[in-house]
Every structure is written in structure tokens, then in C-alpha cells.
Amino acid sequence: MSRALLRSVLELRAPSCRALPRIAPFQQIQPRCAFNTTAPIVEPISPIHHPNNAANPTGSQVRPIAFKKSHPAEPPAPIPDSVKTLLPLLAAQPGHYITVHIHGFPYLVQEGDQIRLPFKMPGVLPGDVLRLNRASVIGSRDYTMKGAPSIDERVFECRATVLGTESEPMRIKVKTKRRQRRKRQAKSKHRYTILRISELNIKNLDEIEASS
């Protein structure tokens, strides 16, 4: 029993001489999947100058492509004596329309249309005929005549008949002020004038010359 205890004590004091496990040398691990490589993109060192890209365009050089002209082609030349040439064609076509101005408000109407003015026209009665002599556009299906800013009143005749006046229901708005018990009622009842375009004619050159 004593020999066994002595042997165990000696083994504890002496360094262990057990053989370490043998480790295999490092081996290169082969990848399970490989990636396809593409050729690198090489940018040109100096930009290629296009012959049409002139830095400072002159008479012999062309304007750069990056800059576009606002009018690549010259606008068409105006038709000489367009009023004398196209006015008979405009007058011959049916279905004329006109943009008349009444107290600064433009209205696009045809013959037979009704206009509800946003105010009550003073000095008119139902049945009165008004001559509308301010217009900016007159046209038909294929032709349009524009004024700068208005068309000569000798070119057309536009008359409107007063049908009457309309009124909206009475509106009452209660107005109050902060920290005051007093209340004030504001009543409003707007009235409107109703017109009907009874006549719309476009004159010919002979009628214009005769009237002038």
C-alpha cells in the first residue's frame, strides 16, 4: 500500500511525459464553389472629342451637341394680306364662335348661348339689345382670327338680348368679436344679369369697305 502511494506522489511531482496528439500539417482548403471573374473595365485616359462638339463654336465649327437650339428651323413667314385672303373663307364656314369681353370678363360663346354675368349690369332692362364690340378671338371649324389685343369691330357684328336678372337666396352671416357679446348680422343677396347671344355675323370685305 505504501509503495502505491509513493509511486503516485512521484508521478505528480515529475513533469508529465505523455505524448501529445499528433497534429497533421496545414492543408490548403479547396473552395466548394468558384466565382466567375469578368474582365476589368478600363476607362479611356483622354476623352474622345466628337467633331461636332466644338468648345467655342464659330462660323466654321458646329455648335456642341449638348446645346440645342430653341428654334431648329425658322418660323414660317406670315401670309401676306392674310385678312383679305382668309376672311372670306372664315365668313363662308358656318358655326362661328367668338370670345367677347364684357366689363373685362371674357366669354367664349356661339349664337344662341346664354351668359350669366357675375354682377348686375346697370342701366339695362329686359328686352334691351346690346352691341358687343370687344372681341379677342373669332373662329370657325378650320380658321381662327386673333386680335392684338382686340379685333376691329368693323369685322363682326355681335348682339346680345337682355333676358332679365336673377338673384340668389338671402345669405346671413353672423359676425362676432373676441371677448364681446355683441353680434352683428351681415346680409347679402347678389343679383346677376342674364344675356342671350341673338346675332353673330362676320362681314365680308365689301361690307367692311362700305362701312369705313
Q: Approximately how much beta-strand content do the residues carry?
A: 25-35%
Helix content: 10-25%
**Average pLDDT over all residues:** 79
Strand order of the largest sheet: 2-1-5-6
Uncertain stretches of 5 or more adjacent residues: none
User: Which radius of gyration do the C-alpha atoms yield?
Assistant: 48 Å
Envelope shape: elongated
The class by helix and strand makeup works out as alpha+beta
Tally the helices.
3
Helix and strand run: HHEEEEEEEEEEH
Number of strands: 10
| Largest sheet descriptor | 4 strands, antiparallel
Terminal CA distance: 153 Å
Family: Belongs to the bacterial ribosomal protein bL21 family.
Pfam family, one: Ribosomal_L21p
Keywords: Ribonucleoprotein, Ribosomal protein
GO molecular function: structural constituent of ribosome
